[in-house]
Specification:
The complex is a heterodimer. In chain A, strands 2, 4, 5, 6, 9, 10 and 11 form a seven-stranded mixed β-sheet that branches. Chain A contains no helices and eleven strands. In chain A, a hairpin with a 3-residue loop joins β4 and β5. By secondary structure, chain B is mainly β. Chain B contains no helices and twelve strands. In chain B, the strands form three sheets. In chain B, strands 2, 5, 6, 10, 11 and 12 form a six-stranded mixed β-sheet that branches. In chain B, strands 3-9-8-7 form a four-stranded antiparallel β-sheet, with no helix packed on it. Classes of the chains: A mainly beta, B mainly beta. At the A-B interface, β4, β5, β9 and β10 of A face β5, β6, β10 and β11 of B.
Chain lengths: 114, 114
Amino acid sequence: GAGVSQSPSNKVTEKGKDVELRCDPISGHTALYWYRQSLGQGLEFLIYFQGNSAPDKSGLPSDRFSAERTGGSVSTLTIQRTQQEDSAVYLCASSAAVTGYEQYFGPGTRLTVT
Amino acid sequence: AQTVTQSQPEMSVQEAETVTLSCTYDTSENNYYLFWYKQPPSRQMILVIRQEAYKQQNATENRFSVNFQKAAKSFSLKISDSQLGDTAMYFCAFSGGSNYKLTFGKGTLLTVNP
């Protein structure tokens, strides 16, 4: 079946602009995670969804970052007033359940802020 | 908070030989899961192998096996009969707690030489 998809694959934006990153999880997966991968910080957890609720937003680096999930499926990560330090690869993963199940990753969105 | 340490930033191995990647972790959780993920240059994170902490038997998946030492909090990955396609960044990851988010190590870049 179809895996996790993310769009766009690459995004170049100017400092100060807003961006939206999209994640389509595997159908039926209730848990959805966003991670960020950067050279300096490695792989960092951003936010976790169970259904449409986000019980853990502890990894969001600032209030410029927000995310939502609708219909228990698609999720959007929004970064407002982008800064150069936001440049990274943003990875989305989904899981059939929370407890110890494998997380399946999408191909990521490479965000470059100029 | 959990921490995951991969002490080998880079490793290389000849094709058909065996290589072991090291990983240690720290946690106060009793129930948790450990994973090895592979990330080739394509950027796609691929699950290699999964280990439940409550299982004493080491997980195996074809050429990949782990040496899980719970008391020592060690979780190494052995790759047998290395193939050129195994060239990738390998991440050790911990999953546990209330939302089972993944905590990653910094990664080991493995190069398989012909």
